[in-house]
Amino acid sequence: MHWAEVFGYIAALLTFATFLMRTMIPLRAVGIVANIFFVIYGYFHHVYPALVLHAALLPLNSFRLYQMLQLVKKVKAAAAGDLNLDWLKPFMSRRGAAAGEIIFRKGELSTEMFFTVSGRYRLTEIGADVAAGEIVGELGFVSPNNTRTVSFECVEAGDLLTISYSQLKQLYFQNPAFGFYFLQLISQRLFQDIARLEARAAKSRRSG
């Protein structure tokens, strides 16, 4: 047996191992090592189709691993402090909103979350204005019945970024750490909303 075949067998075992993995980060990491071993095997054993394939897959796997590690890092940082959800933008789709448009109504089934890029918006029933740079609809992701608790309307035309709850679930299943920190983030935002409502109620009692 040629010594280069050892690299081929190791690469094959590593590739097989990726099919047993349930989360994306270890799968990508092992896939990268398998790519390297296949490139070595293909070069010294003159198996050029395998060499070309895994030489192409190596930077792709490396980039996807980098993306996922950055995502987890940014979610963790957001959960620890500033509640900034800018890290989610690369996974969202852009859509326009016209003045007077009802983005969603109270009682509707909630299926997606929004990030306001530009324009002005309002949560109708509670009369709360929503400026650019805010997230709307994130609590529907974790609510038991997934229904909207308020209506969301566009006051001044602008752009929104959207991400479906199914996409959020995919990110969670690909990397459970993302789900853990995202739920931490949602919990913090919920407690902040409760604090604002309590402050508003206290102010109303004093003025009354």
TrEMBL record:
SMART domains: cNMP. The keyword Nuclease does not apply. The chain crosses the membrane at residues 6-22. One of its GO terms (cellular component) is cytosol. Residues 99-171 form the Cyclic nucleotide-binding domain. One of its GO terms (molecular function) is DNA binding. Signal peptide: none annotated. InterPro entries: cNMP-bd_dom, cNMP-bd_dom_sf, Env_Response_Regulators, RmlC-like_jellyroll. SUPFAM superfamilies: cAMP-binding domain-like. Keywords: DNA-binding, Membrane, Transmembrane, Transmembrane helix. CDD domains: CAP_ED (cd00038). The keyword ATP-binding does not apply. This is DNA-binding transcriptional dual regulator Crp. The lineage of its organism: Bacteria, Pseudomonadati, Pseudomonadota, Alphaproteobacteria, Hyphomicrobiales.
